[in-house]
């Protein structure tokens, strides 16, 4: 057995064996007492550093979109906004005018905002890490410090760090790095999401015990069990070295007693379509259309959107492609749209709320493109509306579809009405799931948002990270209620949150009656294997027990006893 076993949250169902390399991005600042400050020169140096940092961010955003995915790359848009924040810029200039060197002025200005975000409740606390990322980038430029290149660590390295920012994680090369582990973070943190996209073994939220693991130590990162084995024995080393994941299964799968479950992919950009097909995806359970609106100065045309969706349908000619209409707001911002500054944007104007009001013109254009693609694409198009909380919102969205169809009729353009659905992300939607399902063809449960809203726990706020767990009874019962109400109305139910891609939870979800599970492409083979090894009748019985359990520990005991 290993000398020690540290526990955290597994981010990817993969294991890796390697040697510890510690990552510490700290920059040494000048002592203001030792510097004679030329205020004009320091101000010019700060302005030049901002331009250098902006160019770096834009380049890293493009590289991340190509390597990891458009959805993951979007975090760099927020970094550019922080870089250009006039409040921070004014604070830096004021400190320089007071006699501080530019680097110290940046450290002070960002430090105040980092403390403010860390003191907030909810998902806004996530912004503290983004601010650190931008601050450290500026400090590195200002102090002419060499950036530690995580893309050039020795082969077989396991990177350990207090935290990994998006720009840190985007550097990691899965062909070289055996895995990583961090002191902080949760399963839905940026680092964990990047790890899954890269199929990189990873554990987050290990805690301060990780600090005691010395560089050069041999470890096993078990991203499935959520453990770091320090000083593994021979059997543990061999098991980790042999872990290549489950074999790809191209055909559709069913349980041992003949119950079919569709296993689909979450896709954030066109390049991910072929990768999803290569991993055995039956179709696309979440096609994020936001990528079409990013990296440009104006919205995409109807024809551009039509072509992108038709390409997805042609990639899966025998499958189903579920497209989510534009979902912005919250942490998803598009520079050329007039998005309000809100104290808590995740409880504000986002998703369908924007499509029905300030972005109604964009919504109409997108719906016309979707109706046209439904008529011309090879696969079956399904369209779902994000963050619906009321029946009134759904009915307004359905009216918008009718209006788009009427516009196409007037133009004499061929179209087909796709199957329509609703994302279940709010407790309000759960409680009216029967009414929603009676008006559409399907429901799709987004467990990332549903969990944080049911549990009132920000998925990026480490102080309440323990509550952001979909195995709490409240979340399990919300899923069960949604599925039961939808099936009673003859609607099918999918799931496209991170929960769907966790093989340890596959039997529970099958037992709860989910018809479709959609996830990052990397976990598709593992989930398909789990489905094919599950007996539906037994899974249903265990899911009933889990639904009736009073505590998370009781739910997890039922899951672990499978």
In terms of topology, how is this protein built?
Blueprint (H helix, E strand, L loop, with lengths): L3 E4 L1 E2 L4 E9 L15 H29 L2 H4 L1 H9 L2 H12 L4 H17 L8 H16 L14 E5 L4 H6 L5 E6 L7 H9 L3 E3 L13 E5 L4 E4 L3 H8 L11 E2 L5 E8 L3 H8 L5 E5 L13 H14 L4 E5 L27 H4 L4 H17 L3 E6 L5 H21 L7 E6 L2 H5 L1 H5 L4 E4 L1 H9 L17 H16 L3 E4 L10 H7 L3 E4 L4 H9 L3 H13 L3 H9 L2
Structure description:
This protein has 562 residues and is an alpha/beta fold. 44% of the residues lie in helices and 15% in strands. The chain has 22 helices and 17 strands. It has an eight-stranded mixed beta sheet with strand order 1-8-7-3-4-5-6-2. β16 (492-495), α19 and β17 form a beta-alpha-beta unit. α3 (75-83) crosses α6 and α4 (86-97) packs across α5. The longest helix is centred in the N-terminal third of the chain and has 29 residues, at 39-67. The chain is globular, with a radius of gyration of 24 Å.
């Amino acid at each position: 057995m290993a000398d020690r076993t540290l526990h955290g949250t597994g981010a990817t169902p993969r294991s890796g064996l390697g040697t510890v390399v510690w990552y510490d991005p700290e920059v040494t600042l000048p002592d203001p007492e030792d510097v004679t400050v030329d205020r004009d020169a320091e101000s010019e140096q700060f302005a030049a550093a901002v331009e250098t940092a902006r160019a770096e961010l834009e380049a890293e955003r493009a590289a991340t979109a190509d390597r990891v995915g458009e959805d993951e790359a979007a975090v760099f848009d927020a970094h550019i906004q922080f870089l250009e924040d006039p409040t921070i810029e004014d604070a830096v200039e004021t400190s320089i005018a007071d006699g501080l060197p530019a680097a110290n002025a940046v450290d002070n200005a960002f430090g105040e905002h980092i403390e403010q975000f860390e003191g907030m409740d909810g998902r806004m606390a996530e912004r503290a890490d983004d601010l650190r990322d931008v601050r450290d980038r500026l400090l590195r430029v200002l102090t002419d410090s060499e950036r530690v290149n995580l893309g050039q660590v020795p082969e077989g390295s396991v990177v350990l760090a207090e935290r990994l920012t998006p720009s840190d994680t985007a550097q990691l090369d899965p062909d070289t790095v055996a895995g990583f582990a961090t002191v902080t973070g949760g399963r839905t943190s940026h680092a964990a999401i990047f790890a899954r996209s890269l199929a990189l073994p990873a554990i987050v939220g290990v805690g301060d015990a990780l600090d005691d693991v010395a560089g050069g130590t041999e470890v096993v990162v078990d991203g499935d069990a959520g453990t770091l084995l320090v000083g593994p024995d021979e059997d543990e080393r061999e098991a980790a070295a042999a872990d290549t994941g489950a074999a790809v299964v191209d055909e559709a799968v069913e349980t041992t007693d003949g119950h079919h479950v569709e296993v689909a992919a979450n896709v954030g950009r066109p390049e991910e379509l072929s990768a999803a097909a290569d991993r055995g995806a039956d179709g696309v359970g979440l096609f994020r259309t936001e990528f079409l609106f990013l990296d440009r100065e104006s919205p995409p045309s109807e024809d551009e959107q039509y072509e992108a969706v038709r390409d997805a349908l042609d990639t899966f000619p025998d499958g189903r492609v579920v497209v989510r209409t534009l979902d912005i707001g919250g942490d998803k911002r598009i520079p050329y749209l007039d998005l309000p500054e809100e104290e808590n944007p995740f409880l504000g104007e986002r998703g369908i709320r924007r499509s029905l009001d300030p972005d109604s013109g964009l919504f109409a254009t997108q719906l016309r493109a979707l109706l046209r693609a439904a008529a011309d694409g090879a696969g079956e198009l399904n369209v779902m509306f994000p963050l619906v909380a009321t029946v009134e919102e759904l009915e307004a969205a359905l009216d918008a579809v009718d209006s788009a169809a009427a516009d196409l009729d007037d133009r004499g353009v061929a179209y087909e009405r796709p199957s329509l659905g609703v994302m279940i992300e709010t407790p309000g939607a759960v409680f009216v799931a029967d009414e929603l399902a009676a008006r559409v063809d399907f429901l799709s449960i987004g467990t990332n948002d549903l969990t944080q809203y049911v549990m009132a726990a920000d998925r990026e706020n480490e102080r309440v990270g323990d509550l952001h767990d979909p195995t709490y009874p409240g979340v399990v019962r919300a899923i069960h209620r949604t599925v039961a109400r939808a099936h009673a109305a003859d609607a099918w139910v999918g799931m496209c949150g991170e929960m769907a891609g966790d093989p340890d939870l596959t039997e529970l979800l099958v037992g709860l009656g989910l018809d479709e599970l959609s996830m990052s492409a990397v976990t598709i083979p593992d989930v398909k294997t789990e489905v094919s090894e599950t007996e539906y009748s037994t899974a249903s019985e265990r899911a009933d027990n889990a639904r009736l359990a009073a505590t998370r520990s009781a739910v997890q005991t039922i899951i672990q006893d499978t």
